[in-house]
Amino acid sequence: MNNFGLRKVLAALTVALACVCMWGCSDDVTFKWEETRRNAKVIGFVDDSLVMVGDYRFWLESKETWNGGRYDDEDAGNPRLCVYNYRVQEDGPRWCDSVSELHSSSWFYGQLTDSVIWGSGLPNSIKLWKVGEKPHELKLKPEFEGCSKKIEARRIHEWVDGKFIVLGATSVNGKTVENAFFAPDYGDEYCQYAVLDTNAKTVVYKHLDQNLEWVRQCDDVRTLKNKIYCLRTIVHTDQIGHLIVDNEDQGLLEINAAIGPFWGDMLELGNNLCELSVDDGLNCLPVRWLGGVEIENAKFVNEKGGTIYLRN
């Protein structure tokens, strides 16, 4: 075989190997979006009548492999945010918008304010999506004060001076501490929380100072008009749910049940939804939330006994 013939054989082998590595060189590829959406969940509550729901549209891609078989792949994309009325049964959502993405990039981590949800990216960025507006990603500068190991953000709530408190978990010696307030029990290098400043575009990881040490008892915490509201559930007691404001327990609640977490200005008290108020403390609505966050199971029962389902 001459050099020219050898080069042709090597080129053919190279192409064949590339085809094998890429699951074949066939043009037989099918791609299809599902007609309906899936994985719908409650993300937050706008107010005493509107709830935010996030869902996805899944797709399926099928390719012919080098040996004549098929290789199938699926994923979730096109995340959508919708607003529903949970006090009155309606035909569908009041408002919806979606992001054009083949692979969803985690927009539905939780609720930031009454009409804004947040998504992944911390500590270097955060996704923000306000009802009625287009979503965007805000670049951040992470900083550390007195600690070096960041927390993994689970919840973000309104905090003092127009900022936001970031609460979450931390990894300690191969295990996870879900309430990072207790992280310094394992070493001062572990941060307890962070403060997000969307105006300065910073997120500062830190320890609780002496004035805030009392919030270690809280399952969830936020501010309202610069007052610190703390939710605490104490099991195996007559008074299970506690609302603590500026380190003062507000006494026995109307319903003896587990409390929390915060959903914007709303919170759960047993199966009841209650609204946080500076003047009234806690105003529980004549509506119950049953079935959890998954929309296929969730339902609301209003003051007239009517059952409300969040339908597309």
Would you kindly provide a written description of the structure presented here, covering whatever features stand out?
The chain is mostly beta strands. The chain has a domain at 25-110. Helices cover 6% and strands 48% of the residues. The protein is built from 1 helix and 25 strands. Strands 10, 11, 12, 13, 14 and 15 form a 6-stranded mixed β-sheet that branches. The chain has a 6-stranded antiparallel β-sheet with strand order 20-21-22-23-24-25, with no helix packed on it. The longest helix has 19 residues, at 3-21. The radius of gyration is 25 Å and the shape is globular. It starts with a helix and ends with a strand. The relative contact order is 0.11. Residues 2-13 and 15-24 have low confidence and may be disordered.
Mean pLDDT across every amino acid position: 86
Q: Roughly how many Å is the radius of gyration?
A: 25 Å
How many alpha or pi helices? Answer: 1
Strand content: over 45%
Task: Note the overall shape.
Answer: globular
- SSE ordering: HEEEEEEEEEEEEEEEEEEEEEEEEE
Proportion in helices: under 10%
**Sheet with most strands:** 6 strands, mixed
> How many strand units?
25
Low-confidence stretches: 2-13, 15-24
Helix/strand class? mainly beta
Straight-line N-to-C gap: 68 Å
Notable characteristics:
single chain, 312 residues, mainly beta, six-stranded mixed beta sheet, 6% helix, disordered N terminus
Write the layout of secondary structure elements.
Elements: H1 3-21, E1 29-33, E2 38-45, E3 50-64, E4 70-85, E5 95-98, E6 110-113, E7 116-119, E8 125-130, E9 136-139, E10 141-145, E11 152-158, E12 164-172, E13 175-177, E14 193-197, E15 202-206, E16 220-224, E17 227-233, E18 241-245, E19 248-249, E20 259-263, E21 266-269, E22 272-277, E23 281-290, E24 299-301, E25 307-308
Parallel strand pairs: 10-15
Antiparallel strand pairs: 1-3, 2-3, 3-4, 4-5, 6-7, 7-8, 8-9, 11-12, 12-13, 12-14, 14-15, 16-17, 17-18, 18-19, 20-21, 21-22, 22-23, 23-24, 24-25
